[in-house]
Amino acid sequence: MPDIHHETFIEAPIERIFDLARSIDVHKETLAKTNEQAIAGTTSGLMELGDWVTWRATHLGVRQKLTSKITEMERPHRFSDEMVKGAFHSFVHTHEFIELEGGTLMKERFSYRSPFGIIGKLADKLFLERYMTRFVVNRAHELKRIAEAPSGTNQSS
């Protein structure tokens, strides 16, 4: 079961990072390359504990749907979302925020299980774990870019 860890220091207040990370609208903006669209559940605004969203996107050339739910939230320090239905056997994505001098440390842990048993494990080794790591890292970089933008230069704040 792959377990991806990533940390990003962002020069912005913890509350801002927490809200950006759980914003449906910011999610769509940061993942425009995969054409992420919220098509059911909470489709705009900020996700709260118990909220769910169904995403439609194209990953690895395949159009797919995935439903996740916010299963844990401790504002503004932590929240987790878990897959309810989708291409993975399961996943849990935990976001932690630590207030530091000059900004916030955003720590992410994305743990997933691929479907299809041994074939899924082989896919992990060949390409999927690398793809998912880039996915998490690229989204974190985009969140950092948005959060650190001068006031008034971003519609997503």
Task: Describe the structure concisely.
The chain is an alpha+beta fold and 157 residues long. The chain contains three helices and seven strands.
Report on the architecture of this protein:
It is a single chain. By secondary structure, this protein is α+β, with helices and mostly antiparallel strands. The chain has one domain (3-148): Alpha-D-Glucose-1,6-Bisphosphate, Chain A, domain 4. The chain contains three helices and seven strands; from the N terminus they run E-H-H-E-E-E-E-E-E-H. Helix 1 crosses helix 3. 19% of the residues are buried. It comes from Planococcus dechangensis.
SSE class: alpha+beta
Biggest beta sheet attributes: 7 strands, antiparallel
Q: How far apart lie the N and C ends? A: 35 Å
Could you please say which CATH topology applies here? Alpha-D-Glucose-1,6-Bisphosphate, Chain A, domain 4
CATH class: Alpha Beta
Helix percent band: 25-40%
How many distinct folded domains? 1
Residue fraction in strands: 35-45%
Following the backbone from N to C, one meets helices and strands in this order, namely EHHEEEEEEH
Radius of gyration: 15 Å
Number of helices: 3
| Global outline | globular
Quaternary state of the chains = single chain
Q: Mean pLDDT, as a whole number?
A: 93
> Which parts are unreliable, with pLDDT below 50 for 5 consecutive residues or more?
none
Question: What is the CATH H-level superfamily?
Answer: START domain
